[in-house]
Amino acid sequence: MEETKSFFGSGWSFPPQFSKPTRGVLMIADEADIKNSMEVLLSTRVGERFLQPKYGCNLDEILFEPLTVSLQTYIKDLVFTAIYYFEPRIKPEKVTLTPSETEGLVIISVEYTIRATNTRHNLVYPFYLNEGTNI
Fold it and tell me: Is the omega angle on the peptide bond into residue 53 within 30 degrees of 0, that is, cis?
């Protein structure tokens, strides 16, 4: 496994991938690690991680609810709070929701600042239910 010296930190890519040439786990670092970490945070249920029982966002609980103004406000607060408490490398600035023309799809956009470098970035997180397939 290659050791990467990164200012922001580095970690395993998710889902974990392995490399034959290096005989190790593929690592990600810098802004890619932060984005990957936020995607994992937003797709994790609270209580799902044994050693961090409060980690997560619980977006799946509101998956089939009608997208009212109050639900949109609740989703924004849920995402903002989860990022604020569980991703200390960044400062969330703004969360916006955009209902898609595709039924059942909501685009969650997060604008954030990386604290160490004071640079602004954004994450676009599509929130929807994956379709089932016949096995």
Answer: no
